[in-house]
Design a protein that fits this description.
The protein has 138 residues and is mainly alpha-helical. It has a domain at 42-97. The protein has 4 helices and 2 strands; from the N terminus they run H-E-E-H-H-H. The chain has helices spanning 37-45, 63-76, 80-92, 109-127; strands spanning 48-52, 58-62. Strands 1-2 form a two-stranded antiparallel ribbon. A hairpin with a 5-residue loop joins strand 1 (48-52) and strand 2. Helix 2 crosses helix 3. The radius of gyration is 40 Å and the shape is rod-shaped. The termini are far apart.
Length: 138
């Protein structure tokens, strides 16, 4: 074994621990910073955080899961904006069915004409008034 005249010490690591030529100390490189708000939001929503669940235990969950839980709790507690947001999203994602519009009941044509005649007479009496009393006191 050949011995080199190499002093090991401060800022002089042993030769066998030094990087070989062409080898990087950080092969993946520095993480790229987000370039816009959209990327920053996506990066942070995918991270895990520690929160307490309703049982009091600490658990690791994704940020988007924690936000969804907070939004649902807020809606249940009476926040109208949270309720509206959740209902719109649920409808958009087809989780809930739209409320069917009430259909008008079918009315017999004779009854419809009779009703229209009655309404016209009633409106005429109210706006113009009766010229002749319908009952006389003779």
């Amino acid at each position: 074994m050949k011995k080199d005249n190499y002093d090991v010490g401060y800022k002089k690591p042993p030769k066998h621990t030094q990087f070989k030529p062409g080898q990087s100390g950080n092969p993946k490189g520095r993480p790229k910073k987000p370039t816009n708000m959209h990327e920053a939001i996506i990066d942070n929503l995918g991270k895990k955080i520690k929160i307490k669940n309703p049982n009091g235990k600490v658990e690791n969950v994704y940020v988007f899961v924690a936000l969804a839980r907070m939004l649902i709790k807020s809606a249940i507690d009476g926040n109208k904006f949270a309720m509206q947001f959740l209902l719109e999203k649920a409808y958009y994602l087809q989780i809930i069915e739209p409320i069917a519009e009430k259909e008008e009941p079918e009315v017999d044509q004779d009854k419809k004409e009779e009703l229209e005649k009655f309404v016209k007479e009633l409106l005429y009496e109210r706006t113009v008034g009766k010229n002749e009393p319908s009952q006389s006191n003779d």
